[in-house]
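DM from R.C. (forwarded with permission)

"hey, sorry to bug you on a friday — could you get me a structure for this? deadline for the figure draft is monday and I only need the backbone to look sensible"
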Amino acid sequence: MDNKILKALREDLIGELGAINQYQEHIDEIDNDEVKKILAHIRDDEKEHAAELIKIIRKLDVTQEERFQKEEL
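My reply, with the result:
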């Protein structure tokens, strides 16, 4: 396990989660349906990125994977 790589991946995951929250806040504040639709699409892309990062973290970090399995995730 390369801790430097895992640290970078976790920092990337933090960024993706922050982006998801930010897009959602904007969606909640905007009244324009066209803009909401575009932002929702972008937010959902960020969710996919987060899932991809979690997948590779699980693959590279045995302990993390054990915790996911323990929680049935």
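R.C.: lifesaver. Helices lie at 3-29, 33-60, 62-70.
me: no worries. Residues 33-60 form the longest helix (28 residues).
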